[in-house]
Design a protein that fits this description.
Deoxyuridine 5'-Triphosphate Nucleotidohydrolase, Chain A; disordered C terminus; six-stranded antiparallel beta sheet; 254 residues; 4 helices; 2 domains; alpha+beta
Length: 254
């Protein structure tokens, strides 16, 4: 399997009407640069409906949102080739990712539809009519009868929109919500801890009060103290001091 070069695309595309409208100036390095079509749907649109734009109008795909886009050109893949598609690198570098597939079946006829997702942190602006997608043709080993018999519709259908309908929370919004929940949880933890401490304090006070009401604290035992002996007063006998309870010495006769 080999990819067509630019010369083969320029030779076959206009004669076999592989690309309508066709502009030879859009054949670049073996690929054809497809332009953004007028219809689109973005999941963040409050109307939840597809929109139509004129050439030169700008549409924005917010971060974390899906979009359904389509090409301005109608594509015809011959029965001896298969197509491969991508978004231009200058747009992919902004975070826009193709999530709808990367090949086009042999026999496909009609515009191409791209389901995309903005994985970046900023809006991805797109201009209607400008070169947005790339198409490569790759040769099969020969013509095949197993071709796509049902082509694409000329516009976005209700089924196309329902596949991605509904606003999606971006990673940045989810992070904000998680941070808010963490803050609220921390507040609950702090309040809960304060309530627990207050409850334990009140409970401890109640226990002390109950224990104090059941009986008086036993007084300290009285210690028998030894009374100090009182000295007997001295009694004067003559010129001698005699202690009470003692027999005074007899005085000698002169």
């Amino acid at each position: 399997m080999a990819f067509w070069n630019s010369e083969l695309i320029k030779q076959r595309a206009p004669t076999e009407k592989l690309l309508v409208p066709y502009d030879q100036g859009r054949v670049v390095t073996g690929a054809y640069e497809l332009s953004l079509g007028s219809e689109s749907y973005i999941t963040s649109d409050p109307t939840q409906a597809k929109r139509s734009f004129s050439d030169g109008a700008q549409l924005n795909i917010p971060p974390g949102q899906f979009g359904m886009l389509m090409t301005k050109e109608s594509i015809c893949i011959p029965d001896d080739a298969i197509g491969f598609i991508s978004i231009k690198a200058t747009i992919k570098f902004q975070g826009l990712v193709n999530v709808s597939g990367f090949h086009v079946d042999p026999g496909w006829k009609g515009p191409l539809k791209f389901a995309v997702y903005n994985a970046g942190s900023k809006n991805v602006p797109l201009i209607v009519g400008e070169r947005t997608f790339l198409l490569w043709f790759s040769a099969l080993t020969g013509k095949t009868t197993d071709v796509r018999t049902k082509g694409g519709t000329m516009g976005l259908t209700r089924e196309d929109i329902e596949r991605i309908q509904g606003e999606v929370s971006s990673p940045a919004e989810l992070k904000k919500e998680m941070d808010s929940l963490r803050t609220q949880l921390r507040i609950v933890e702090i309040v809960g801890a304060a309530v627990a401490v207050a409850f334990l304090g009140a409970y401890a006070g109640l226990i002390v009060e109950k224990l104090g009401g059941k009986g008086e604290v036993a007084p300290s035992p009285q210690i028998n103290q030894v009374q100090p002996s009182v000295s007997q007063p001295a009694v004067a006998v003559g010129s001698n001091q005699v202690q009470r309870g003692q027999t005074p010495n007899a005085q000698r006769a002169p």
